[in-house]
C-alpha cells in the first residue's frame, strides 16, 4: 500500500508522477454571483437626473444632449438591474418559522426500510433505516448555544431560537411539522476490524430541509434516545461531548474544512451515567442533544453493511448508490451525454483501460476518493487529528463527521493521537491519517466490487487518484502556509523536522512565520525574534538549526519577488491564529456543567473568525497551560 507518512513521519511522499495518470475526473457545480452595478463615488444617479431640467437641457450642445439621454438610459437600466438584484438578495435572505421549513423525506421514500418500527436493539436486515421517534426523557430542556450561519443555510429566521418551545422541539419532545424520524443502518471497520452492524445508535434524523437554493440539508438529533442500533448503549449523549461536537463542527467550517454543521445544542435536564476513562469509575453528567446538519450523513459503512450480509442484501448497494448519485452527485448521471473524456489511458495503449464515462459508479468512487484526499490534506494543514477514522465515520461527501476524541496539535508530534483507545498502536495518529484514508477507501471499493458495480481496474484507478490528489492538495496547502511561490519539499521537510524535534506549537509557529522579514543582514537573534513565542529553552545546536532554516526560507521568499506585506497577508489568511484546542473546550465545558453557557457562546464567536487578529482575545491563542495535558483534556476516550 502506498504510504504517506511525513518527516519524521510526516512528509516523504511518493512522487506525484508515479500515481498521476489522467486528468481529475470531477465536475464542479457552477455558482452564480449576483452583484449590484457600481458607479464611481462622484456619480449620483438621482441628483443628476433631478438637476437636469428640460430648460437646462435645451441649452446643451447636441453631443452633450445625446450624452445626457444616454446617461439617463443607463441610469434607468442600472436602476432596474439593482432592483432585480435586490429582489434576488431578498429571496436569498428568506426567513422562515420552523413550521414553514420545506421538509422532505427522500431517504425513507426512496430506499428500503425496516418492516418493524422502534423496538429494542437488534439486527436490522434488508433495510437502510428504521422509523422511530426520539425517546429521550427531558426535564425543562435549555438552549445552550446556536449557529446563526446554519440557520441561514436552512432559511430559518434566527428569531426562532428565542421561541419558548425551541428546546422542546430540538430535544425531540415535539416533532417538526412534516418530519418522519428515522435512524440509519450501517456497519463499519473499527480499528481495522469488521464490527458488523453499527448504525445510528443515538442519532435520529428528523428529515431533510430543502432551502430556496435547492440544497438539501438533513437535520439529525444526536443523543435522542435508543434505537435498534444502540447495541448495549443507552442512546444518550452528555453535555461534555455535545459541546465539543457543536463547537468543532462550526470551527472547522470557519477554517474552510468540509464538515457537518450544528444548528443548536440543548440540555435535557437529566443526568447520564458515563465511565469516561473506562476505569470502572462511572459518574453522572448532564445530558444534552446536539442538532447536526449535513447534506447527507451517508458513510462508507452505509454501503458496506449490505455487502457483508449475504446475496439477498447485495442489490441494496446499487439502490442506495443510485439514490446517492441522484441527490448528491447528479452531474454523474449525465456523463455519457456530455462527451467529456474521463478515461485512463496508459502509455502505449490506444484503448482506455478505465472509461469513467460509461460507468457512473466508477466515476462516483473516484470522486469520493478525491473528496476524501482533499479533506485529509486540509486536516494535515491545520494540524487536526480526527481520532476515530473507522469506516463508519467516513463521509461519502468528503465531510469531517462524528467529532469524538478529536484534537488539534499543540506541540508538534506526528505520532499524536487524542484517543486513549488508540494508544496501543496509534493507528489513527496524525501522521497516519492519509494512509488510513486510503485503507478505508479500499474497503469501500471492495464493497462496490462485491455488488459488481466496478471492476478491479476501476478500483485501482480510484486509489491512484486518491494518492495523486492528496499529494497535490497537501503540497498546495503547505506552499500557501509558507507564503511560497512554488512547492519546496526540502524547505518544508526541514521545517517539520525542526518542529518535531523541538516540540514546537504547530498553530502558533505557522502563524509566526508570516512575521519573518526578508532582510538578509539580520543577526541570528533578530532573525529568530518572530519565533520567540514557540522556540523555548533551545541549545546552541538547535538554535543553529533554526537559524539555518530561516536563512534558507528568507532566500526562497526573496527569490520569488513576494513582498513582506503580501507574504504576511496571504499567510495569515491560511494559518489560523485560533483553533479549538481541547483545553479551551474543557474550560467552556466546566462552566457549562455549572449552568453558565457564556464561555461556550464566546468560544463559538472566537472560532468563527480563526484567521482574524481579534484584539482583546489573545488568551484564546496562547500556548496551552500545564493543566491542558492532564487526562481527559489532551486525550479522551470514545465515551460520550
Automatic annotation (TrEMBL):
Gene Ontology CC entries for this record: chloroplast thylakoid
Cofactors demanded by this protein: Mg(2+)
Protein keywords: ATP-binding, Magnesium, Metal-binding, Nucleotide-binding, Nucleotidyltransferase, Transferase
Pfam family for this entry, one: SelO
Any one GO molecular function term: AMPylase activity
Organism superkingdom: Eukaryota
Keyword Disulfide bond: no
Family, as annotated: Belongs to the SELO family.
Name the UniProt record assigns to this protein: Selenoprotein O
